[in-house]
Amino acid sequence: MKVVCIINARGNSKGLPGKNIRMFGDKPLIAHTIESAINSKICDRVVVSTDDEEIAEISREYGAETPFMRPKDLANEFVHPEKSLVHAVEEIISSGYQFDITVMRDCTEPFIDEDDIINAVELLKKTNSCYGVQAVHKAHPNPYFGMVELNSHGYLEDSKIAD
């Protein structure tokens, strides 16, 4: 079975401009996502879907392909990531490449490593009753109890307390 990893990385982040190529440790943030996909050795191709030439260039430096540029109308904060994924899949298929499994990655997930990718793909391969696998992690402690708010004296205090 052929596996393609598609990494979404738009260039016009409103919250943190340039976040996808900012240094995270010793390399750009997107490099961690690219390297985990490549190092998994389960992905036949690692493709970055971006509208930004600088992101595309850095992606190629770290071993990803950028065979197309994402249209601007699919590269803003109001577009659901699945729409850019569908665009990427259609572009890859229209180039004549056939594949069986798509691994969708967001480049702001540097802690999903190659073992996570391998385990997800292997689970999908051996399960005939599912169409998708998603990585999740149980929050410990529950983040609900980590919220704080200003009290009447202007100091932060816990909003919720576990019984």
UniProtKB/TrEMBL annotation:
Annotated InterPro entries: CMP-NeuNAc_synthase, Cytidylyl_trans, Nucleotide-diphossugar_trans
Annotated GO MF terms: N-acylneuraminate cytidylyltransferase activity
SUPFAM superfamilies attached to this UniProt entry: Nucleotide-diphospho-sugar transferases (SSF53448)
CDD domains: CMP-NeuAc_Synthase
Name this polypeptide is given: Acylneuraminate cytidylyltransferase family protein
